Amino acid sequence: MTETLASPVPASPLKLYSYWRSSCSHRVRIALNLKGLNFEYKAVDLLKGEQFTPEYEKLNPIGYVPTLVDGDVVIADSFAILMYLEEKYPQHPLLPRDLSKRAINYQAANIVSSSIQPLQNLAVLKYIEEKSGPAEKLRWVQHHIEKGFTALEKLLKAHAGKYATGDEIFLADLFLAPQILGAISRFSVDMSKFPLLSRLNEEYNGIAAFQDAAPAKQPDATQTST
Ligand SMILES: N[C@@H](CCC(=O)N[C@@H](CS)C(=O)NCC(=O)O)C(=O)O
User: Does the beta carbon of 113 lie inside 6 Å of ligand 1?
Assistant: First the structure.
């Protein structure tokens, strides 16, 4: 007889402060879904500046989404949230046991979270558009996404299986899926230059935990183009 271990569940409902189109929120939504953790969705409208209200800044001092609240615990950064979830709710591990594979996951995640996403953040794009116009804004964002994607294609060529680092979904996939979706749907990046990332994207699109985390499925989704 196989013994099944109960998955840890939160004592009180988790709350996720999120914006539908935020790729940083999107990664956390995927993790929560993979781990089977229900959460209350607390919408923060970035276009209305709700991230800068004094109430929200008490939770997230830098005024970004996402923020996770788990009882008394408040965590205001997607990487920190993912590491917290991983340790507190170990069902569906986000990190492989193999240390070198784990390091590749950190590397791929950080290419997205340090070398792509901050350069396409709302405040950065608004500044560039104001100074140099919408065409320059698009050139800027495409350049930085393509630079990161080129590095990711090279890095993952030696490690990918069905997913980014093998045949199981790990941390790297949680960072890639939202970034690729944004590149396609918001920034018209030519994905034909990135065959591996395109193939991974097809895989992600077929998985329920990823589908349910998609921007368009969130309660605050609108048709706004920003
Ligand atoms: N390192 C942070 C970055 C968070 C971040 O940049 N969030 C963006 C959305 S993906 C945001 O809130 N932008 C609002 C703004 O630029 O005012 C994390 O990973 O949580």
Answer: yes
Q: Which amino acid is at 35?
A: K
- Does ligand 1 lie within 6 Å of residue 46's CB atom? yes
User: Which of ligand 1's atoms lies nearest the C-alpha of 118?
Assistant: 6
Q: Are residue 153 and residue 203 in the same domain, yes or no?
A: yes
Ligand 1, pocket-test mutation among 29, 30, 64, most atoms within 8 A of CB: 64
Distance between Cα 23 and ligand 1 center (Å): 8
pLDDT in tens, 27-45: 999 999 999 999 999 999 9
Into how many domains does the chain fold? 2
Domain with residue 188: its CATH number is 1.20.1050.10
Where in the sequence is the domain holding 36, given as residue range(s)? 14-92
In this structure, which amino acid lies at residue 205? N
pLDDT tens per residue, range 111-127: 999 999 999 999 999 99
How large is the average pLDDT for residues 136-149? 98
Q: Look at residue 86 and tell me if it is in a domain.
A: yes
Question: Going by DSSP bridges, is the β-strand pair 39-43/73-75 parallel, antiparallel, or unpaired?
Answer: unpaired
Angle at 216 between CA 104 and CA 188, to 5 degrees: 65
